[in-house]
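Please, why this fold?
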Amino acid sequence: MKNIFILLFLCAYISPGYAKQDTETHEMADISLQQAIELTLQYSPLLKEYNYNIEIARINEKQAGIGVRPELDIEVENFGGNKHLKAFNSAETTLQLNQQLLLGNKTALRQQVSSYRTKIEETAYLAQRLSVIQEVTQNYIEALYMAEKAAIAKEQISNSMAIKAMIEKRVNSGKDSPLAIAKAAIDNSRALLEYQNLENRLKYSKTKLQNCWQPSPDGMIAINGDLDVITEILSQNILLAKLENNPEMINWASEVQMQIIRGNLANAQALPDITISGGLKHINESDSTAFIVGLSIPLNSSKYNKNLQKEAQTNISKVQTQKEAAYNWLVNEFNRSYMELENAIDRVKTIKETILSDSEKLFNASITSYENGKTSYLDLLDSQKILFSAKDDYIDALAEYHIIKTKIECLIGESLNNN
């Protein structure tokens, strides 16, 4: 259970280079990923529901350790009849206290079962908490991604306007066709339309992010962060071993232990519980009083107990099989995600070091060549498209990397930033 608290602490600070800020209110103009996570955890109604489940489980755990309450019996006989049994002349009154004794440590075993039910509810809360952290982190990355895309589109507008001015200069000097201005104007309008579209999508992504902790239709929050941060990852085998930190695996381990204790409880049922009793009897006719004692032992319970034992063993095998299936699913998810993460890292590095760098060189060379009249305006516009397409591809690759990275962190229960 300690590992889960560690993983949630780490995942709460999963951040691709985001700045930390202190806050006491969710009404803010600037917000970091850490703040978004803290606010979501504070106001999430889903987590409050799980807290109620934990509270109920803890109450049941305490109740299971109380044991069987004693019973008080009062019995009056031989009254209200005929002849000498009229009225209460011959009545016999018995006051008796009965106490069932649970043998075979049944009370402790039942409390242990309830204790594991509590652990399972606590783990379910932690799993939901981790899911909430993953969701808000992905929403934050999406908002950063849209902000970067909008910034690129805005840069493209400025770039297009500069190119249009350059073309107009050459057209006015008779060095180029007036059609070049029309072509540049069309490209400029397209860039402006794309920027407006991305601004709307950015607003929606911010609204979706803010709705994680506070319903809002405007998405007026500001975010700060940098997607251009790549973490070197450990080997696949090292990270694979950390899957045991996943809340689902901890939950299944608790399920197995609970079924084992239920098996021990079923074995204990073979030992019958006895009931002892003691009290007083008063006889009105002779006005005499006497002590009474009793002992009750159930019979013929062996067949019932064998069925319970068989059911318990079957449940143990069933849960162990389910645990194995859950682990296999997690392994497959991890292996697929790790492969995707490696591909994303390679893509980011290739675009940054080769494609983006070469595109910038091509664009700069095209500007010089066009100004010197060695290339056409079409070549210049084409080099501009290549450059901004490379920038878009780079942001796409970074966003994909951080989304996959977040998924792996939630699978292994640790932040990859700390490895």
In short: DSSP finds nine helices and six strands in the chain.
